[in-house]
């Protein structure tokens, strides 16, 4: 499920990085309740993550449509329990880490997932960026934090924007704005294959097209541990 995804090739071809994407899954009936649907998806997501990443846990952001970015691992007092029964980093829409083996996860269904891989330091990031997060500049915030925490140079970054909703299905072209912000920040490589979540409901969930009765795709990234 996380293999053979061409849009992630720019990261997966780099030594020491592994990025994944779990798209729409058969056999799960979505509801308008996000937490209920995520709870239904959880066993399948856990199975795929265990198979492809050899772990039974991943870090999650609460995803409040802001620009907050947290560095993990974090102490328990900075976490909260989400409605689907799993802990999340409170108030955040992005995660970064330089710690090997710490798997990051972000859920999306029309908003963009943004993967960041630093070829220089090995640090990684994963962001939830829809209309609001893009307007607030979450990509720039993540790059700034990676600079400050890990010594990341923007020119060493490989950044990938995944499938998200785009015109004409959505009136705001936030994908184009993310690309502009990446160029403005001096990102070494920015990749966007232009895939629209609203165009193929066999592969993607789309909150807008399905009028809220939908599931979530799961984006993943890890800095792999050295054997």
Overall description:
The chain is an alpha/beta fold and 227 residues long. Helices cover 24% and strands 24% of the residues. It has a single domain (6-223), classed as CNF1/YfiH-like putative cysteine hydrolases. The protein has five helices and twelve strands. The protein has a six-stranded mixed beta sheet with strand order 3-6-9-8-10-11. A four-stranded mixed beta sheet has the order 1-12-7-2, covered by helices on one side. A two-stranded antiparallel sheet has the order 4-5. The model has no long low-confidence stretch (mean pLDDT 95). This is Polyphenol oxidase family protein. GO terms for molecular function: copper ion binding; hydrolase activity; S-methyl-5-thioadenosine phosphorylase activity. InterPro entries: Cu_polyphenol_OxRdtase, Cu_polyphenol_OxRdtase_sf, Cytotoxic_necrot_fac-like_cat.
Highest-level CATH class: Alpha Beta
Helical content (DSSP H or I, runs of 4+)? 10-25%
In terms of quaternary structure, what is this? single chain
**Can you write the helix and strand succession as a string?**
HEHEEEEEEEEHHEHEE
If helices are DSSP runs of H or I spanning 4 or more residues, what is the number of helices?
Answer: 5
Give the spatial strand order of the biggest sheet: 3-6-9-8-10-11
Low-confidence spans: none
- Termini distance? 24 Å
Could you give me the name of the CATH homologous superfamily? CNF1/YfiH-like putative cysteine hydrolases
CATH topology: CNF1/YfiH-like putative cysteine hydrolases
Number of spatially distinct domains = 1
């Amino acid at each position: 499920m996380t293999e053979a995804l061409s849009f992630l090739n720019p990261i997966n071809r780099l030594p020491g990085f592994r990025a994944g994407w779990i798209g729409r899954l058969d056999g799960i009936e979505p509801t308008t309740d996000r937490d209920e649907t995520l709870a239904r998806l959880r066993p399948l997501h856990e199975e795929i993550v265990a198979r492809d990443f050899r772990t039974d846990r991943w870090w999650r952001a609460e995803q409040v449509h802001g620009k907050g970015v947290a560095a993990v691992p974090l102490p328990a007092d900075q976490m909260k329990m989400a409605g689907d029964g799993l802990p999340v980093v409170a108030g955040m829409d992005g995660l970064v880490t330089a710690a090997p083996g710490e798997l990051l996860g972000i859920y999306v269904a029309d908003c963009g997932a943004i993967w960041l891989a630093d070829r220089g330091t090995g640090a990684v990031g994963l962001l939830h960026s829809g209309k609001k997060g893009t307007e607030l500049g979450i990509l720039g915030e993540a790059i700034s934090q990676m600079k400050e925490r890990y010594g990341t140079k923007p020119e060493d970054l490989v950044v990938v924007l995944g499938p998200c909703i785009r015109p004409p299905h959505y009136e705001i072209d936030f994908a184009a704005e993310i690309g502009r912000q990446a160029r403005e920040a001096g990102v070494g490589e920015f990749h966007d294959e232009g895939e629209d979540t609203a165009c193929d409901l066999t592969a993607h969930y789309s909150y807008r097209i399905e009028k809220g009765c939908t599931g979530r795709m799961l984006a993943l990234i890890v800095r792999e541990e050295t054997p």
